[in-house]
Write a structure and sequence with these properties.
Helix content is 43%, strand content 35%. By secondary structure, it is an alpha+beta fold. This is DUF3291 domain-containing protein.
Length: 113
């Protein structure tokens, strides 16, 4: 039987183009934090149709939540509502989706944040 992992998908769109420097400062720091976080198996980002997406894979939902609520990511979340809109989707699975699947899941299942 395959191991079950927790997959987190985000997609954010800037409200105004001039928010880009703030967004990228937070995004870069958050991605570095994710890649170094305990329980993170992988973390990647892509821009699809003007939306900045992340795909991260974790050993568990608890590991992802530990990352989510501290450090650079916590600071990014505090800034988010001012500069962007977006949706998130997380789920447990034995099969990590590829980028086309990630985008479909985000469109179909994502919850507004």
């Amino acid at each position: 039987m395959a191991d079950i992992v927790y997959v987190s998908i985000t997609g954010l769109r800037l409200k105004k183009v001039w928010h880009a420097p703030v967004f990228w400062r937070h995004a870069t720091a958050s991605m570095s934090q994710a890649k170094a976080a305990e329980g993170c198996l992988s973390a990647d980002a892509r821009t699809i149709d003007g939306v900045d997406h992340t795909l991260s894979v974790w050993t568990s939902r608890d590991a992802m939540r530990a990352y989510l609520t501290k450090g650079a990511h916590l600071n990014a979340m505090k800034t988010f509502k001012r500069i962007a809109t977006g949706k998130v989707y997380g789920f447990e699975t034995a099969t990590v989706p590829d980028w086309p699947q990630v985008h479909r899941l985000w469109l179909d299942e994502g919850k507004n944040v």
